[in-house]
Design goal:
Elements: E1 7-13, E2 16-24, E3 50-51, E4 55-56, E5 64-69, E6 72-76, H1 78-82, E7 91-99, E8 108-116, H2 122-135, E9 137-145, E10 148-157, E11 160-166, H3 176-179, H4 189-201, H5 214-227, H6 246-285, H7 331-342
Helix pairs in contact: 4-6
Length: about 350
């Protein structure tokens, strides 16, 4: 079952109009919010509406006003606000289309999902979505949300549209004053190569599932432990040391990356050895003789200082002269040698 729509209306392009529903793309339902309590009795603190002259007042006595000078207001009645009718309250009219890559992120605000409002709207909805996707374009229009008209951007997202409210030009600060002090000039090539190698070694796919609000996670653990009556679990992270030598920091970062990769390789080799021992154990249990790897001695890493010996080809080997056989000594010779020794 689809969630309840945040807004229901029409999407209009020139003379083409079809119904759409708006759903908020983000949620804060899992976010922990702390309340203010009275220190002595733990009762929740209430915020009564008060007037500095007459004290506490009822909500029915509250009106809206605009402060045009210090402590001077002009009152705007609700019926006067109701008379301000804008077409964008019920219709998103796309009046312009721009290339998707031309959109600057600094102007993007909140994101909503846009789906067709029933089966009748599905066909024109799909046609416009495919046309925008094929053109690589996004539509620009206006929409009134929470009593305020906002510029919006509509572009393909998944099987539907993603609508993003935009900041007006006067809401976005010019970036120049913040970057004026950054110097221009040649970049150290050695530092550039080190930084590029470090970045490429950490390249990966964009995976939003890796993003967690670690402060909220720690706050959840703290609240759970206190509700259970246990000692508070405080999650602390070590402070990063200040680095003064930029080049040395780059080199150490690369060395650390290489070390992590080496540990991963050792772990995979250890898993392979464990799997091999498991296979041999399975062979023993089944009555089979475990197969031993031949030449296990050859798997040892050779000594770096030892130089392998090479055998000369058979054609170039020096042939050893045959050993001549000596004639056996006769018994007379043996008797003569014995008499010499006794003399």
């Amino acid at each position: 079952m689809a969630p309840r729509a945040y807004w229901t209306g029409n999407l209009k392009i020139s003379l083409v109009t079809f119904g759409v529903r708006l759903y908020s793309a983000t949620t804060e339902s899992e976010k922990i919010r702390l309340n203010q309590l009275h220190k002595d009795c733990n009762s929740r603190i209430r915020m009564p509406t008060t007037c500095p002259i007459h004290g506490q007042v009822d909500r029915s006595e509250i009106v809206k006003g605009y402060e045009f000078e210090k402590d001077k207001y002009v009152v705007v009645e609700q019926d006067e606000l109701d008379k301000i009718k804008l077409r964008s309250e019920k219709t998103i009219e796309l009046t312009k289309f721009v290339p998707v890559e031309s959109i600057q992120d600094v102007y993007l605000d909140s994101t909503y999902y846009v789906a067709p409002d029933g089966p009748v709207s599905e066909e024109p909805f799909r046609v416009v979505r495919e046309a925008l996707d094929e053109a690589g374009a996004a539509g620009i229009g206006k929409l009134t949300l929470a009593g305020r008209e906002r510029p919006v951007l509509v572009r393909p997202g998944g099987r539907g549209f993603a609508l993003v409210t935009l900041h007006a030009a006067n809401e976005v600060r010019d970036a120049s004053p913040y970057f004026d002090e950054i110097k221009e000039g040649p970049i150290n090539r050695e530092y550039m190569d080190l930084a590029t190698t470090l970045i490429r070694g950490k390249m990966g796919r964009f995976d939003p599932s890796e993003f967690r609000d670690r402060y909220q996670d720690a706050l959840v653990e703290l609240v759970k432990s206190k509700v259970a009556g246990q000692a508070p679990v405080i999650v602390q992270e070590e402070d990063l040391p200040a680095t003064f030598n930029f080049a040395e920091a780059l080199r150490q970062s690369l060395a650390h990356s290489d070390g992590v990769a080496s540990e991963d390789g050792d772990a995979s080799r250890g898993n392979g050895r464990r799997r091999q021992r498991g296979d041999e154990e399975g062979d023993r249990r089944s009555g089979r003789e475990p197969e031993r790897e031949q030449g296990r001695e050859n798997e040892r890493e050779p000594d770096r200082d030892a130089r392998p010996t090479r055998r000369a080809p058979a054609a170039t080997r020096a042939k050893k002269p045959p050993v001549k056989s000596q004639p056996a000594a006769s018994s007379a010779d043996t008797s003569k040698r014995t008499r010499r020794k006794q003399a």
